[in-house]
């Protein structure tokens, strides 16, 4: 009767967030209001992504749709939706979006105490072929009035919350507010995100590695050696499977649920890798640690990184605790040889 229980206890993300809030007696509910505005943005984007094929929302901006309206690309539309939802929440003071070159500073009366960093539609190059894409976000506290850009350049370990919403065969929002990781699936008939994956823990080790093998020519020694071990294990165990979607939210979501390791290493072409620190590396690293996994930049714990620029990139190795330990050992050995 699990299904019936699900139907009757209906733990929605809104109730879940309010339950979390009740654990902080001094909370005035600002955080819950902020999260609920992020959830609203995710619901809108989910609906727009699902209609994309039909309403010809895909393709280049500048096209006109059947109504002859100026067509916005989905990622531009998604960004506008999140920026508006976050500002109108009245709980933010700084927004950093992958879509906007500069940070957005909010002034009174709508100014609040949180800085939100987000990629409104990550993996959007995959939209036209129907591959899963997602929104990634992280939330920092800014505990003084006049916010500056430094309040957005905090190390990932300062994040209060992080999450992603994956727009795939179902719409799933995975969230951590610092007490573990929970997954919510959108029930379109209710228009509510329902708790379907309580207290997600990533397996300690996995049989999957996830990397763009097309960059192999440019990898450094430790990464090349690690991938070699995945394919030709020295201990005689069976090789790992390669699974790579090329959409970070899809690759990380699979890693979180099935275990294994996701890598976007540095290479000779891109010495800092490709993924962005604030709104790709930090939120996914936060979630991995909260789920019992870990995240490493090739030098340090990913969440200890202190970014200098809002669109800065970093190499990232994240996933099952023991799998990341292996690549950390290879980088440490290489460091000792220098
Ligand atoms: P590559 C998508 O463009 C993205 O930003 C991430 O979602 C994804 O993990 C990565 O880039 C894929 O990059 O170089 O393997 O195509």
UniProtKB/TrEMBL annotation:
Keyword rRNA-binding annotated: no
Primary subcellular site in the record, as a coarse category: cytoplasm
Cofactor(s) needed by this chain: Mg(2+)
Superkingdom of the source species: Eukaryota
Coiled coil region boundaries: none
PROSITE patterns, alphabetized: FBPASE
Keywords: Carbohydrate metabolism, Cytoplasm, Hydrolase, Magnesium, Metal-binding
GO cellular component, one term: cytoplasm
Class of the enzyme per the UniProt entry, highest EC level: hydrolase
Pfam family, one: FBPase
Cellular compartments annotated: Cytoplasm
GO biological process, one term: fructose 1,6-bisphosphate metabolic process
Location of the Fructose-1-6-bisphosphatase class I N-terminal domain: 11-198
UniProt-listed Enzyme Commission number(s): 3.1.3.11
Domain (Fructose-1-6-bisphosphatase class 1 C-terminal): residue spans on this chain: 202-331
A GO molecular function held by the record: fructose 1,6-bisphosphate 1-phosphatase activity
Catalyzed reactions per annotation: beta-D-fructose 1,6-bisphosphate + H2O = beta-D-fructose 6-phosphate + phosphate
PANTHER family: FRUCTOSE-1,6-BISPHOSPHATASE, CYTOSOLIC (PTHR11556:SF41), FRUCTOSE-1,6-BISPHOSPHATASE-RELATED (PTHR11556)
Family: Belongs to the FBPase class 1 family.
Annotated protein name in UniProt: Fructose-1,6-bisphosphatase, cytosolic
Organism for this UniProt entry: Dendrobium thyrsiflorum
């Amino acid at each position: 009767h699990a299904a019936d229980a699900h139907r009757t206890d209906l733990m929605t993300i809104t109730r879940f967030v309010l339950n979390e809030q009740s654990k902080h007696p001094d909370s005035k509910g600002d955080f819950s209001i902020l999260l609920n505005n992020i959830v609203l943005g995710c619901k809108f984007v989910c609906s727009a992504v699902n209609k994309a094929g039909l309403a010809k929302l895909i393709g280049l901006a500048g096209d006109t749709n059947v109504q002859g309206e100026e067509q916005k690309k989905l990622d531009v539309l998604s960004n506008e939706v999140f920026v508006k939802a976050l500002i109108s929440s009245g709980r933010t003071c700084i927004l950093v979006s992958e879509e906007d070159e500069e940070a957005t500073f909010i002034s009174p009366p709508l100014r609040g105490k949180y800085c939100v960093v987000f990629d409104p539609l990550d993996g959007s190059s995959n939209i036209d072929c129907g591959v899963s894409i997602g929104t990634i976000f992280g939330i920092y506290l800014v505990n003084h009035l006049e916010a500056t850009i430094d309040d957005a350049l905090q190390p990932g370990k300062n994040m209060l919350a992080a999450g992603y919403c994956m727009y795939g065969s179902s719409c799933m929002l995975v969230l951590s507010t610092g007490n573990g990781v929970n997954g919510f699936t959108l029930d379109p008939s209710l228009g509510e995100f329902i708790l379907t994956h309580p207290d997600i823990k990533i397996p300690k080790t996995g049989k999957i590695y996830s990397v763009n093998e097309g960059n192999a020519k440019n990898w450094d020694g430790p990464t090349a050696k690690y991938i070699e071990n995945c394919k030709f294990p020295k201990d005689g165990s069976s090789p790992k499977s390669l699974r790579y979607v090329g959409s970070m939210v899809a690759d990380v979501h699979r890693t979180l649920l099935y275990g294994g390791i996701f890598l976007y290493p540095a290479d000779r072409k891109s010495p800092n890798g490709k993924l962005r620190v604030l709104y790709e590396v930090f939120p996914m690293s936060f979630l991995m640690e909260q789920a019992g996994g870990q995240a490493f930049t090739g030098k340090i714990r990913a969440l200890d990184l202190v970014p200098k620029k809002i669109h800065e990139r970093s190499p990232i190795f994240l996933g099952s605790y023991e799998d990341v330990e292996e690549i950390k050992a290879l980088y440490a050995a290489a460091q000792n040889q220098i």
